[in-house]
Amino acid sequence: MIKVCLLGAGNVATHLYKAFKSAQDVHIVQWYNRDLKKISTYKNDVTIIDDISKLSEADIYIIAVSDDAISTLSTTLPFENRLVAHTSGSVNIHDLDKKNRRGVFYPLQTFSKEVPIDFNEIPICLEALDKNDLDILTHLAEAIGSTWYKISTEQRQTLHVAAVFVNNFTNQLYRIAHEISDAKNINFEILKPLISETAKKIQEVSPYMAQTGPAKRNDKKTIKKHLKLLEKENHKAIYELLTESIKKTHGVSSPPRTRKEKSK
Amino acid sequence: MIKVCLLGAGNVATHLYKAFKSAQDVHIVQWYNRDLKKISTYKNDVTIIDDISKLSEADIYIIAVSDDAISTLSTTLPFENRLVAHTSGSVNIHDLDKKNRRGVFYPLQTFSKEVPIDFNEIPICLEALDKNDLDILTHLAEAIGSTWYKISTEQRQTLHVAAVFVNNFTNQLYRIAHEISDAKNINFEILKPLISETAKKIQEVSPYMAQTGPAKRNDKKTIKKHLKLLEKENHKAIYELLTESIKKTHGVSSPPRTRKEKSK
Q1: How far apart are alpha carbons B96 and B103 in whole angstroms?
Q2: What is the number of other CB atoms lying within 10 angstroms of the CB of residue B154?
Q3: Nearest residue in chain B measured CA to CA from A162
Q4: What span, in angstroms and rounded, lies between the C-alpha atoms of A85 and A101?
Q5: Nearest to A211 among B168, B206, B237 (CB)
């Protein structure tokens, strides 16, 4: 049985609370938040506190607060030499106050408050300065059914950038497709199967092998047609930059000047 | 029973062949390709021909060849006033020779020769100049279990651009994430659940509502950190452009000059 104190009340904290609560091998000793109201819904199921000096003994303290608040919160902990882990993709493990043993427990996934999360599907990136602490982190990850990976701070920060590409930026491409379709009264539903299939394909085939389309074929006629169809400058710019990127990846790049002339 | 002649031997033609073949209400009269070798595998299951003058009578002739070849092929058809439909996302319906009745049967999906396709999952965009011809196209779409949409040429061409965004460009973002991860010896597997979830979320929630991350929060510190971590200029440029695009969508745009200064 791993005894956990959870700190914070955002999306990650709330999803971790639910996962810990339903895990057989995890006991949530306390859930701390400076504003009790945000977690008061759960007061009958777990001990909730807003006074950090009242934190009890536990095997691990999970700090799931915003990146900027992690370091400061770690200095206010009323104990020493216990395992404290944050859940951020970008904060350095050394930003945690060194009076405690330090770790990272970073679930790589997109969290929305409303959408239930299955931790079986979520890889957790673990980091610890000490082998025994890494064991505690792996046990905790396994207790909630997650696959875990030992990842250095630099690797985690790189993953965080990569996650922005495959999540935030991909989602923005969906958004642009939505805008383009709406402008011509096209039902966005038509594009959903393609969105699914694009993500599905990558589970088996590398993105390099999965690529198709006018940029990869260097089909200048279609590219020109598409650029003419796009009405917003921002959409055009993204189209041009990603087309160049695909061409570069697949070795069909044309000299920049020629390209600029052609797209005018 | 709809009698079909299929023309072409690429990915779309091959997948359509299989779908038509297994559909109860479709009979493939002939499969034409100028190079017989490409379809000779199927010679025991269907009549294959390489002489266009030998095309028999059918309810519909599906031209599934490359965009550039559609128009010319349509002029060589040895008959008049029959229904001829191409399968392209970007070719105008009027590019088909007007000696025949014209239509479009455009399956909006990414096709790889190796990956089997379930047409139940594929929306088909239909266009015809005549109501009766549209009926034939809808029957054909329904016969292979597809959902269909009546789409104008302009809408279809717009959808084709939108498809480039959600498929080719999204896949290139996956590729960049793959490159970034590889450079730091990070297993790309870690990102796959996030890729799946990002596509899955959009099936229920609009891309606007689904957005999260540093750009949407206008989290300048993280954005700066990410730009510093990115080693390739091309990756930096894409990061900056898509970050600006997200900021603009969510009304958190900062003046360009300030942004440029900050990202340095």
Answers
A1: 8
A2: 12
A3: B177
A4: 8
A5: B168
| A34 reaches B (C-beta below 8 A) | no
Nearest CA in chain A to B116: A201
Instruction: Answer yes or no: are the C-beta atoms of A193 and B123 closer than 8 Å.
Output: yes
Q: What pairs with residue B12 in β-bridges?
A: none
- Under 8 Å CB-to-CB from B22, ≥6 apart: which residues? none
Domain B2-151 adopts which CATH fold?
A: Rossmann fold (3.40.50)
> Is the confidence metric ipTM above 0.90 for this complex?
no
**A232: helix, strand or coil:** coil
CATH superfamily for domain A157-263: ProC-like, C-terminal domain (1.10.1040.20)
Token reading at B149: 């949409």
The predicted-structure confidence for A224-262, as pLDDT tens digits, reads as follows 999 999 999 999 999 999 999 999 999 986 555 444 444
On chain B, the residues whose CB falls within 8 A of the CB of A212 are 110-112, 167-168
Q: Locate the domains of chain A by residue range.
A: 2-151, 157-263
- Label residue A199 exposed, middle or buried (CB < 10 Å: 0-12, 13-18, 19+): buried
The Cα B173–Cα B168 span in angstroms is: 9
Pick the residue from chain B with its C-alpha nearest to A221.
B68
Cα distance between residue A117 and residue B141, in whole Å: 37
Instruction: State how far the Cα of B112 lies from the Cα of B133, in Å rounded to an integer.
Output: 29
Residue type, B113: K
Q: Beta-strand (E) ranges in A8-112?
A: 26-32, 48-49, 60-63, 83-86, 101-107
A193 interface with B at CB cutoff 8 Å: yes
Min Cα separation A133/chain B (Å): 22
Can you tell me the distance from the alpha carbon of B129 to that of B161, in angstroms, rounded to the nearest whole number? 23
Q: Calculate ∠ Cα A149-A155-A161, nearest 5°.
A: 110
- Which residues on neighbouring strands pair with residue A31, listed in sequence order? A6, A48
| Chain-centroid distance, C-alpha B2 | 25
The per-residue pLDDT for range B75-116, each reduced to its tens digit, is 999 999 999 999 999 899 999 999 999 999 999 988 777 777
